[in-house]
Amino acid sequence: MGGRDAVGYLCDHCAHAWTRPVEDDLDVYDTVRVDLPDVTLYGTVWQVDDDRVQVRGVGGEWLRWVERWRVIVY
């Protein structure tokens, strides 16, 4: 997996900071949450590449490639 090993977060309201590891054991059909800058998506892993994941929305409403570090197993 190229790129990041961990993702950092910072709360705008209280300045609390924390990190989480990037998921390295994603499998097809895992249920995941995707944290994007403007929206949080929930769906199913459809394909896994080294640094990106294809996620399918509930009922096939959408299919989107996202950077692997944005995905959290739900």
Question: Any overview of this molecule?
Answer:
This protein is mostly beta strands and 74 residues long. It contains no helices and seven strands. The chain has strands at residues 6-10, 17-21, 31-35, 40-48, 52-57, 63-67, 71-73. The strands form two sheets. A five-stranded antiparallel beta sheet has the order 6-5-4-3-7, with no helix packed on it. A hairpin with a 6-residue loop joins strand 1 and strand 2 (17-21).
Strand fraction equals: over 45%
Uncertain stretches: none
CA(first)-CA(last) distance? 20 Å
Quaternary status of these chains? Answer: single chain
Treating each run of at least 4 consecutive H or I residues as one helix, how many helices?
A: 0
Number of strands: 7
Q: Could you write a compact summary of the structure shown?
A:
It contains no helices and seven strands. By secondary structure, the protein is an all-beta fold.
